[in-house]
Amino acid sequence: MTTILIPALCLAAVAFAMGSVILFISKKFHVEENPMVKVLSGMLPGVNCGACGYPGCNGLAQALASTRDPKLTCPVGGAELAGDIGQALGIKMAEIEPMICSVVCQGDNHAAKEAAKYVGIQDCWAATQTVGNTKACPYACVGLGSCIPYCSYNALRLVDGIIEVIEENCTGCGECVQSCPKNVLVMMPKHDKRVLVACRSVDKGVHTKKYCSHGCIGCKKCEKTCEAGSITVDSFNATIDQSTCTSCGACISVCKTETIVMKGDHFELQGNS
Questions:
Q1: Confidence of residue 130 (pLDDT cuts 50, 70, 90)
Q2: What are the structural domains, with CATH classification, of the chain?
Q3: What are phi and psi of 104, to 5 degrees?
Q4: I want to staple 258 with a disulfide (CB 3.0 to 4.6 A). Which of 70, 151, 183, 271 is the partner?
């Protein structure tokens, strides 16, 4: 009996001693949490998307409570939430420019030529590792929808072999951007009218034409037409400076490949063919 009782008592004594040490340390080094953290954490959306630069909403709440930095923002909550946070902290928060996700590709099943029949795992990253792309254009949206699960707001859907943004659902968190192996998802300021070059190809125009009917061929017509000087063409691809673009639409009218598009709230305009 003693051969069982003595080891059991020893183990109990060790467990009691360790428990006592843990209790002592927890009380000795206990740090009271700032009550404002709980208040701010309750105000934040709780999606833990990381768009603010912190691991989660509680991380942002802790940073706000400790630093009271007016530049710390929640892209998902936008200006309204920023105002509420500022009121809770008693400070004026910095103005937030609303952002939205845009797709810089128009290589759907009609415009883009197919490269090969892909029958592997239905994942964009897997496809790029095996066949490079499901489409002839090496820069095009792979079209398998790997970015969709990353969106907590149901703002992404797959339509005709290309990803599409449901703008009324997009909060501008940017969580989906890193999920695209072809970098066709970009964040840009949300305006009523937004002009963008919906193509990533930097190949010569003669090659891009073989890939996709809506690819940028680097003809520079848009660059010459833009009175604001917002467009530059480099490496056979046009770029629009959103800070100076007036959304006049002149570039759209001269883009024969319909590469340049204008998007906005319940509004979309493409170039002339």
A1: confident
A2: 37-89 (no CATH), 191-273 (3.30.70.20)
A3: -95, 55
A4: 271
